[in-house]
Amino acid sequence: MSDTFRDKLPNPPAVIFRQPPNLRSLLVRAKLPNHSGGEIKGCFKTHSAQCVTCTSLKETKWVRSFSTGQKFNTFHSITCCTQGVVYLVNCLDCKKQYVGETGGELRIRHRGHRQEFRKANTPLGKHFQSCSNFELIGVEKVHNNSKTTREAVELKWIYRLNSFAPVGLNVKDATCSL
Ligand SMILES: [Zn+2]
Ligand SMILES: [Zn+2]
């Protein structure tokens, strides 16, 4: 406890367990970095402009459904080099969302996206013939990285974000994941 803090308390030993909730939560939060010891939550850029994926990546710790407005926190640390990822593509032009999964690195999957954009050979690729502004967000890391688990997690996020067509860009029974 700092001296300045102690000075503000009229009677330190008596009030120590009766701190106002906001002050108490501040103190608890201040300790977290020392005790969590694990990954920093959220989706992060790790490269500068020469990484095409990092350029499109949105740094965030939460995602929002464009159709329902519901917000969801994310709990894993994800970069363009993370393997086994469920990700979100937000179309910023028409506010439609696409949830996908990949077993490989997110940046390799995003190379595939850019190919789809060029060839218009998938629902996602076709969509970005008319729209052009998007952001990419790594939403959840699938730790065991099995296809079955990735697809289950992908489906969970599709339902959470309500991203099935026509509201969103996911098409039932048609995945365009690697
Ligand atoms: Zn990168
Ligand atoms: Zn669009």
UniProtKB/TrEMBL annotation:
InterPro entries: GIY-YIG_endonuc_sf. Gene3D superfamilies: GIY-YIG endonuclease (3.40.1440.10). This is GIY-YIG domain-containing protein.
